[in-house]
């Protein structure tokens, strides 16, 4: 059985590690990475880096490499590759599963403002604060570039490029982050509003707790849904069960 994991997330790596640990002699696992992050942590098994050339290119790759199942374990906001995976699955008949960690949910004390896009988040910001902790990654910063009256602390794994806000300090860092570290960051930079995507998971969630404790508003960009008709698994264990139902024979 040949399984293609569309990766780049903690869950994708955990799934690859779990399949490698199963030591199935007839199992081949290939993880595909987009190549947008420098020095990524590589999972076990075969690894390919780069795009496929849209849904048609991915369908061609699935046929050429005799793939039996695809697990889309990309970031919850990687809408293009998820749509391409759905299209390739429909064209080839190769089963597709979306592996998506559960999203965050507000709790008592949170001051959340949910939006449907980065552009909507940018329009809302001037009414909420002047010093912004922007944790949406290095892509899409152009949405905030016109906000010359606001100051931004931009945190990302790799250095962002233009266009980006004129008044900004870039902090290069990779999660997981600690609650104490996030508290200190908000205090040191006098942050009065936080912006994040609903990526879910524990690695970057401490900023939400720190904001709640400080009484700060948080702008949360809602994640897009999985493509219609694609089953969703919340964790690698569930994904492994799905693979077993589609032909994976574990040792």
Task: Please specify the SSE layout and strand pairing.
Blueprint: E1 2-6, H1 10-21, E2 28-33, E3 46-49, H2 54-64, E4 69-72, H3 79-92, E5 96-99, E6 111-115, H4 118-124, E7 131-135, E8 151-156, E9 168-172, H5 179-188, E10 193-197, H6 206-214, E11 217-221, E12 232-233, H7 236-245
Parallel strand pairs: 1-2, 1-4, 2-3, 4-5, 5-12, 6-11, 7-8, 7-10, 8-9, 10-11
Helix pairs in contact: 1-7, 2-3, 5-6
Model description:
- The chain is built from 7 helices and 12 strands.
- It has helices spanning 10-21, 54-64, 79-92, 118-124, 179-188, 206-214, 236-245; strands at residues 2-6, 28-33, 46-49, 69-72, 96-99, 111-115, 131-135, 151-156, 168-172, 193-197, 217-221, 232-233.
- Strands 3-2-1-4-5-12 form a 6-stranded parallel sheet, with helices on both faces.
- Helix 1 (10-21) packs across helix 7, helix 2 (54-64) crosses helix 3 (79-92) and helix 5 crosses helix 6 (206-214).
- 35% of the residues are buried.
Total helical elements: 7
Low-confidence regions = none
Counting DSSP E segments of at least 2 residues, the number of strands comes to: 12
Structural class: alpha/beta
First-to-last CA distance: 13 Å
Question: What's the oligomerization state?
Answer: single chain
Biggest sheet record: 6 strands, parallel
């Amino acid at each position: 059985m040949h399984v293609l994991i569309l990766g780049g997330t903690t869950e994708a790596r955990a799934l690859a590690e779990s399949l490698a640990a199963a030591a199935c002699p007839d199992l081949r696992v290939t993880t595909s990475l987009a190549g947008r992050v420098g020095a990524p942590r590589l999972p076990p098994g075969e690894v390919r880096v780069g795009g496929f050339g849209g849904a048609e290119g991915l369908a061609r790759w699935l046929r050429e490499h005799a793939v039996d199942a695809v697990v889309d374990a990309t970031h919850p906001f990687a809408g293009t590759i998820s749509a391409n995976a759905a299209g390739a699955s429909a064209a080839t008949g190769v089963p597709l599963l979306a592996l998506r960690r559960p999203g965050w949910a507000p709790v008592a004390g949170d001051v959340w403002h949910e939006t449907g896009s980065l552009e909507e988040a940018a329009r809302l910001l001037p009414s909420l604060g002047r010093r912004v902790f922007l944790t949406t990654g290095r892509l899409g910063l152009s949405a905030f570039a016109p906000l010359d009256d606001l100051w931004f602390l931009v945190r990302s794994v790799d250095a962002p490029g233009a266009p980006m806000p004129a008044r900004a300090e870039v902090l290069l860092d990779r999660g997981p982050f600690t609650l104490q570290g996030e508290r200190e960051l908000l205090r040191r930079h006098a942050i009065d509003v936080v912006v994040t995507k609903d990526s879910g998971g524990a690695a970057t969630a401490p900023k939400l707790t720190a904001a709640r404790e400080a009484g700060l508003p948080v702008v949360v960009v809602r994640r897009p849904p999985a493509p219609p008709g694609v089953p969703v698994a919340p964790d690698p264990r569930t994904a492994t069960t799905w693979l077993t139902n589609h032909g994976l024979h574990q040792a």
